[in-house]
Design a protein that fits this description.
373 residues, six-stranded mixed sheet, 8 helices
Length: 373
Amino acid sequence: MLSGDNGILQRATQSKEKTERAEIIENAQMDILAKISEKKGENLTASELEEILTSPNYNTQGRLSDEESILDRTLTSNNGKYQIPVSEIYNGTLTNTAPSIPTEYTTDVKTALVEGKYVTYNNKPFVVLYNNDDGIEIIAMETIGTVTLGANDETEGAQGTKGELSRAKWSYNNAIQTLNKFAENLFPSDSIIDDARCVGSMPGKTNGISNKNMRNTQKYIHGSKNIYFSSYDNQFEQAEEIEETSMNLNKTLVVDSPNYINDNNKMEQLGILNIKSYYWMASRYMNIQEPMENNGLVTNEGTYFNISFVQYVNWGSGEASTLENANIIKIMPNNVDLASRSIGFRPVLHVSHTAKVKNNGGDGTSEKPFVLE
C-alpha cells in the first residue's frame, strides 16, 4: 500500500510534481497577462514572449529549445525536472512567431570572457583569444585531430584529381577552406558556439569558407611589368610565368602577406603560442628567391620558387617557439618538388551570443576555468 506503483507514497510524489508543474505554468501565464496589460491589450511579439519565458524565475537555461516557431519550442524548468511546451503556457496570437536571435552578449559573458581567460567547452581547455567588435573567440590549448595537405591530401576534392601534382595544386588552392571546414566538422554550431575556424585564418566568423583569407595586396614588380597575385587559384601558373621572365631578380620577395600574423601576434601577447606541439596556421605565401651560392657553388640554377602554404609552430627545446615553413610545392628550374605534411590541428571557436558562463565557481584561471553552457 505504501511503496507499490500505485501506492500512497508514489501517488503523493505524482501529486506534488503535478502541482509544481502547474505552478510554473501559472506563474508564466501571470507574467504574460501582466505584459499584455502593460501593452493595453495589444498582441505580444515573439521576442516579448521569449523574454518572459526565459525568466530565471522558472527557466534555468535562460533560453528555449531551437524550433523555428516559438509556439513549438520548449521551456526547461529551474531544476531541469520539467519540459513544458510553450503552447501549453500560451496559445494566443503573436505578431510573429519567429524566435528572436540575440545580437549582443550578455554583460556577464562580455565581462567574464576577457582575453587570456581559460574556459572549458566540450570538456576541452580553451583560452579567450579575442573579445572585440568581431565577437568573442576562444582557442584550443591542445591539438585536436590531424590534417594532411599536399600530394597526399585526403580531402574529397583532392582525391578527385589525377596525379600527385594535380592533387598538390588542388590542396594548395583549397587548403584554407579545407582547414576551416575541418574545424566546423569538429565543432558543429550549437547554442554555445556558432562558427569554427583554423588558427591563422582571418579572425571573426568565416562559416567554413576562405573568403576572408583571399586578401592579396602585394605586387611583384619586374621591369615595367606589375604582376598581381589576385587569386590563389592561378598562383601556381603565375609563379611559372614569373620564373621564365625574372632571371634578373636580385632579392628574395614574399609575394603574399600571410594572414597568420593576426593570430600569431595575439597568441604571443597572451603567452599561448607554444603548446609544445606542431599545428597548422591557416595562411600561405610564396617566396621568390634568386640562385643561392654556397662556398662558390650555385646550389640552384635559375630563379628558385618556394610555394609554401601554412606555418606551424616548432616548440623545440625549452620554451622557444619558432614559425617554420610547411612546404607542399616547390617550383624549381628543372623540376617540381612535391611534399605532404600531416600536422596537428588547433581550432578557434566563435562564441554564440546565446552562450552563458556556468555558475560553477570558476574564475578563468587554468586551475578553475569558466565553463560555457
